[in-house]
Amino acid sequence: MKAKKNDMIMQNKIFIWIGLATAAILSIPLVAMQFTSEVDWDLADFIAMGILLFGSAFLFVHVARVTPRKYRVLIGTAFVFGVLAIWAELAVGVFGTPFAGS
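^ that's the sequence the OP posted. Answer follows.
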């Protein structure tokens, strides 16, 4: 029982780290926009990507809390591929849905 309490997933401060990681990832295009015109994000892009990153990490934590520890890597891999697929669809329309970007 003590091992579960020390597990980072089981502590609620993980959500602070998720928020900081989301902000750090979103700062990359923000800084890139200052140096090049090839990165052209608007507020909606930052909001969509913030929701995608924070939301998927938030959902992963909740799913990981109710599944056995040995399946976390598998679940995490599925979440990463899901986020990448949604990101690719929003960016360039890989799958041709109405949510496709440019």
